[in-house]
Design brief:
Order of helices and strands: HHHH
Largest sheet: none
Helix content: 55-70%
Shape: elongated
Distance between the termini: 32 Å
Structural class: mainly alpha
Radius of gyration: 20 Å
């Protein structure tokens, strides 16, 4: 992003990030869909605890 900031001649990285990066609602939905359900039964709790997850 520093290169984009320099090329755009912005005074700060925040301006570049605000202007050139954004998420679409579909991207957010896809990310949420990849998360495990909080209502799902906890399978193999011992194995998860052993890995720190």
């Amino acid at each position: 992003m520093a290169v984009a900031k320099s090329l755009a001649r912005h005074s700060g990285l925040v301006l570049t990030m605000d202007h050139y990066t954004h998420t679409l609602i579909g991207d957010e939905r896809a990310a949420l869909d990849r998360l495990p359900s909080i209502n799902a039964p906890r399978a193999n709790v011992a194995a998860l605890a052993a890995t720190g997850t």
